[in-house]
Amino acid sequence: MSSASTALVVAEVRTRYRTLLALGAGALVFELALAGTYTALGGAAGLAQSFGKNQPAFLSAFAGGRGINIFTPSNYVGFGFVHPLFLVLTLTVGISIGTASVAGDIETGRVDLLYARPLHRTTLFDSRLGLWAGAQVMVVVAGLVGSWIGTTLTHDLRGVSPMLLVRIGAAYLPLAAFFGAVAFAASASSHTRGHALAVTVGVASLAYLVNFLALLWHPLAWAARVTPFGYYTPLQPSGRIDVTNVVVLLVAAVLLIWLARWWLERRDLV
Amino acid sequence: MCWTAAMAATPAPPIECREVTKRYGHIVGIDRVDLVVEAGSRTGLLGPNGAGKTTLLRLLVGILRPTSGDARLFGISVADATARRRVGFMPADPAFYPALTGLANLELLARLQGADTPDRGWALDRMGLDDADLHRAVGAYSSGMRQKLAIVQAVQHRPDLVIMDEPANRLDPFAHHNFEDLVVELARRGCAVVLSSHALAEVEAVCDRLAMIQSGRVLVHESTSRVLARAPRRLTVRYRRAPASLPPGLQAPELHDRRLDALIPGHRPDVLRAVLADQAVEDVLVQPATLEDVFLDLYKGQQP
Known about the structure:
Chain A has 10 helices and no strands. Chain A has helices at about 5-40, 45-50, 55-60, 75-80, 85-110, 110-115, 120-155, 160-190, 195-215, 245-265. In chain A, helix 1 (about 5-40) runs parallel beside helix 7 (about 120-155), helix 5 (about 85-110) packs antiparallel against helix 9 and helix 7 (about 120-155) runs antiparallel to helix 8 (about 160-190). The longest helix of chain A has about 40 residues, at about 5-40. In chain B, a hairpin with a 2-residue loop joins strand 1 (about 15-25) and strand 2. In chain B, helix 4 (about 120-125) packs antiparallel against helix 6 (about 145-155).
């Protein structure tokens, strides 16, 4: 990383560290608390008893799967990583940094100070990408650590392998990369941060809704694969990392970033 | 020395625009602008709101892309980021990182510029910012202090071209005075300064050249003294008795009792001689034209 990039990243970190720490702490506490509730709710047997023999399809779809018993220890842990609160906490990292990267600079007027330097626009853009990548990993890892502490401390979850958390992390980071890339692409083509934010949140919300309906209603099952959430399945029975899903999400993210950089080089920064 | 060798030995001017046009859809920002700014010159960019001044400045520093034409800084196309290596830019509304101190902001911008800061101390001293100010978060600065910091960041790396958009906005009279000294000092060292401003008295005091823009076109680009010499001067004549007739060549003459108010066209000493030839003249006052007179005359009919 060049001296200019390092300086920009340091300035951004000094500006945003409270937000990033809060998001990381939020992810950690949420996963810790979720694991802690497992025994309190009676474990697999108690939860099955509460919801009856046939688990509601809504609950299964909400957990990101179809016909999956989410009350087994490993699926319960996995459920913590498709829960909307976890998604919001972690995706906020990419949305916040991504939408601020170009559109935010234009809106605040900082574009005149930063982009009038003898640097390629993409150098500044890539610096923010680097910041986002680091922050995104930190917040997701915080969630994984929270879950690991929770499973360690919760008697009924002690059988859950730490490898499950590694697999979930490996599956989730490409999803976060995709939505971060959407935020950066929206920002690179927007005049205001509000517009970039609206596009990114709109894409994420619509994708979540379509995926939810696809998991709920069988004739729409195909639709899950047109959303990024269809490529993120932490509750997989196989227990392996689905490499195809990871590749699809990463390729889509890289394409969006490439498009954003291409557009950024050509546009007016007003 | 052959012609090509002579050309190669001549350094490229800090700014060279040839037929530069910027359109936003159907709206014309600037239209076929030709402009050359020489090293060591102090050019004032004037024009009413929306004339295209900021568009031109932002195009020069790479914020905007030209629709057509060729704009160069030191012979390098503005599309090439390295063209801005010897440039300092001060925007109209500098948006620093408010959570960072003034010093941290200056450090960041110098690192982005990829240059040392040999003139930081000099510029800070000139603009009256001290150590205590530099160690405070910019979010706690007054708007005038932010403006001073913006001036410092534009010159701290000793650029050969400084471009400033409304630099004297929000400066108090002392800072104003110091800023004018700073600009003169920069030019004395060979740095070209281009500033856009509505403070016409400041431009008149500081700039030795004017570029006047209207509807995206540069109407006038010549030395300030020449522009002022060509402009009409205000004439007031008091007579002992009302004159029978007025001398020819006066503009907008108004005779009230024994007092005549009129304008004398620039470069017309014969008109003044004709006025003075009248035996009835008791007193004469000729006021030199100001840039404000020139501005109002050039842009009359432009105001909303």
